[in-house]
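Input record, target 12 of the design panel.
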């Protein structure tokens, strides 16, 4: 087979894939309960967070460090408020009870949420409880799962938490997107564990922490390897004010 024919077939196959693939826009963002790190602790700015989300045009958003009815954020349900500001559907997943309120993660979805799972993750070593939330949603007539988490800082805990996640999804047939602040760098054991069934958009997701001069890669967007998916337009948003993390954005083409 000559080179011209091979090139033609490759182009044809790529065209067929893109003809049937649908692009899904994904955002993952640790929002530091809406408190910009350069401001006083009393300053809460959800309007800026909402603007970032809306400007990204994301279909699915995983947010970490969300306050619900906490005094430090003026007793607001931040999950509900961000859903209202962005015009998206939402769920909140509690990690811990805190000062008569709750603290955890949130998923926002442009499309109606069809099913919800919430799991508390294991913590062999005493620490702040973490959770895994999962929604089922249909986008472009394609049913998929979207999961969001915020793993612990302690090594023993985050390894066990990663194992819990791989156990939950190892036999999953639906395309499954996993996002979150995993508190782990690419070569850490927790990422090695998750990489058994998930793949990242690139070898390096990119530095997202701290926000002013990022030097650490701990925020991730992944999809299960059984999905016929391709990544594109991977980028760290140039946002230095809203949180102590920068937002991570990726587009995923699911056939």
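The sequence produced for target 12 reads:
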């Amino acid at each position: 087979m000559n080179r011209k024919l091979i090139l033609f077939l490759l182009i044809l196959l790529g065209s067929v894939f893109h003809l049937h693939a649908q692009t899904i826009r994904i955002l993952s963002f640790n929002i530091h309960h809406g408190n910009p790190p350069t401001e006083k602790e009393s300053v809460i700015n959800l309007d800026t967070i909402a603007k970032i989300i809306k400007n990204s045009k994301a279909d699915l958003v995983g947010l970490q460090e969300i306050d619900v009815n906490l005094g430090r954020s003026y007793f607001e349900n931040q999950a509900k408020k961000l859903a209202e500001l962005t015009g998206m559907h939402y769920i909140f997943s509690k990690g811990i009870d805190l000062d008569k309120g709750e603290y955890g993660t949130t998923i926002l979805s442009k499309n109606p949420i069809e099913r919800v799972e919430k799991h508390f993750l294991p913590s062999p070593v005493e620490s702040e409880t973490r959770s895994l939330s999962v929604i089922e949603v249909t986008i472009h007539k394609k049913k998929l799962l979207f999961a969001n988490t915020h793993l612990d800082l302690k090594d023993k805990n985050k390894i066990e938490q990663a194992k819990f996640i791989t156990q939950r999804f190892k036999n999953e047939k639906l395309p499954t997107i996993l996002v979150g602040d995993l508190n782990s760098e690419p070569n850490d054991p927790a990422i090695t564990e998750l990489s058994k069934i998930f793949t990242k958009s690139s070898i390096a997701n990119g530095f997202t922490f701290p926000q002013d001069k990022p030097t650490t890669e701990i925020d991730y967007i992944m999809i299960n390897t059984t999905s016929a998916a391709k990544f594109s337009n991977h980028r760290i948003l140039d946002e230095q004010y809203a949180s102590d993390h920068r937002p991570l954005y990726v587009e995923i083409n699911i056939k």
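The domain at 23-254 is CATH 3.60.10.10 (Deoxyribonuclease I; Chain A).
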